[in-house]
Design a protein that fits this description.
Blueprint lengths: L4 H12 L5 E2 L6 H7 L2 E2 L2 H7 L2 E4 L13 H5 L5 E5 L8 H10 L2 E6 L12 H4 L3 E3 L8 H19 L15 H23 L9 E8 L9 H12 L12 H7 L3 E8 L10 E6 L16 E8 L2 E7 L2 E6 L3 E8 L4 H11 L4 E8 L5 E8 L5 H9 L3 E7 L2
Parallel strand pairs: 1-2, 3-4, 4-5, 5-6, 7-8
Antiparallel strand pairs: 7-9, 9-10, 10-11, 11-12, 13-15, 13-16, 14-15
Length: about 400
């Protein structure tokens, strides 16, 4: 009862013990509950079906003595009640009656309407009640722990790291955040690549994101990935600093609609995502080879050994690490092309960190994807474009 930070942490631990967890909180977003694998239900449904009821709600005029004789009468006989919220949410005399009648089999309390409770309190002395002092956050160890956690969170945020404790960003548990970290980088870089492929004067209105995965909808929380894709798309074309907090809001301001879909594949669910595909319809492209038969700009990438890779451009399969910057060349498939372009880059002191060639068939069309550490000078790019077999090329900055 109550699905804020503490309630959601309790839910995660209960799920780990194999319990089916439901929650009631009129203010909790459904996507947060789904991310933890919890079902949000009504107050009456929660109290009438739960075997264990854990309270994590604030004390307000609405919640004061919300657990009373009427409430206890609706509970499943033999339920266990845990209150670590505020003592005033329970009518203590009514709880004693519920314990005596067996409606509540046991209660565990560390908060009371009056603290400390009276020595002759029937609740404290009841044989089916376990009580602890309301001191959890006031111990020396707890205060030190909170101070360290705050300092680490601030340092991490200043270093540009993702945070599992931000209250105004997508809420993702720490272990899931760690698992998604390389895919977060992939999502942002794919967004940056996609928007740079759009030719000037083409207004982006719609973006479609596909997550190719073996996991079910309840095992994959994509809110963080969506925010990073949005950041990658908007930041290169905006004067604003885009982050996880304002990404969706800024997209709405710009009239940008982002749709998401999950594409199921029969592969190992060990990795959360096989690949991410971004499509931008109804625009012109700076690099025509990224256009699919449907007329959309389409790129796809995946994480390999913890590093984001670009794996598809339009209908061409490529494999280039998304580190540094990228040059895409479409050319006639023939011997010597890698060497010619490589020599031009070497002459201009541009280091190649990765190179991949994808082709439609032997001696036909091919795409060369080149990862470079530095941004080539205009003269180097001009010379690449002058190579007779090169039909088009584009430089993309990451």
């Amino acid at each position: 009862m109550g699905f804020g930070k503490v309630g959601s942490e309790v839910a995660r631990r209960a799920k780990g013990l194999g319990m089916h967890v439901i929650a009631h909180d009129p203010y909790a977003p459904a996507d947060r509950a789904r991310a933890v694998g919890v079902e949000l239900v009504s107050f009456d449904q929660a109290i009438s079906t739960a075997d264990f009821i854990s309270l994590h709600m604030p004390l307000t005029p609405t919640t004061k003595k919300v657990f009373n004789d009427t409430t206890f009468s609706k509970m499943k006989k033999g339920a266990r009640l845990i209150n670590v919220a505020r003592g005033g949410v329970i009518d203590e005399d009514a709880l004693v009656r519920a314990l005596d009648s067996g409606i509540v089999a046991q209660a565990a309390l560390d908060v009371f309407a009056e603290e400390p409770p009276a020595k002759d309190s029937k609740l404290v002395q009841h044989e089916n009640v376990t009580v602890t002092p309301h001191l959890g956050a006031s111990t020396k160890e707890a205060q030190e722990g909170v101070a360290i956690e705050i300092a680490e969170a601030v340092i991490g945020a200043l270093n540009g790291e993702l945070s599992a404790t931000a209250v105004n960003a997508p809420m993702v548990p720490a272990e899931i955040l760690s698992e998604l970290a390389p895919y977060v980088q992939l999502a942002e870089k794919l967004g940056r690549l996609a928007v740079q492929l759009v030719a000037g004067g083409s207004g982006i209105q719609t973006i479609k994101v596909s997550y190719i995965t073996a996991r079910g909808p309840d095992d994959l929380d994509t809110r963080l990935l969506r925010a990073m894709i949005t950041k990658g798309i908007i930041e290169p074309i905006s004067d604003m600093h885009i982050n996880l907090v304002n990404a969706d809001f800024t997209a709405k301001q710009k009239g940008l609609r982002i749709s998401e879909e999950r594409v199921s594949v029969n592969s190992s669910p060990e990795n959360p995502i096989d690949s991410i595909q971004i499509q931008i319809p109804s625009v012109q492209s700076k690099f025509e080879s990224t256009i699919t038969e449907k007329g959309d700009i389409s790129i796809e990438g995946k994480v390999k050994d913890g590093i984001p890779h670009l794996t598809r451009v339009g209908s061409f399969a490529v494999d280039v690490s998304l580190e540094g910057n990228i040059i895409l060349c479409r050319q006639v498939d023939q011997p010597g092309m890698i060497g010619k372009v490589g020599i031009i880059l070497a002459d201009h002191n541009v280091n190649v960190n990765f190179m991949s060639v994808g082709r439609t068939s032997k001696k036909q069309k091919a795409i060369m994807a080149i990862g470079v550490d530095e941004e080539p000078e205009e003269d180097a790019l001009r010379k690449i474009g002058q190579v007779p077999a090169v039909e088009e090329f584009v430089f993309l900055k990451l």
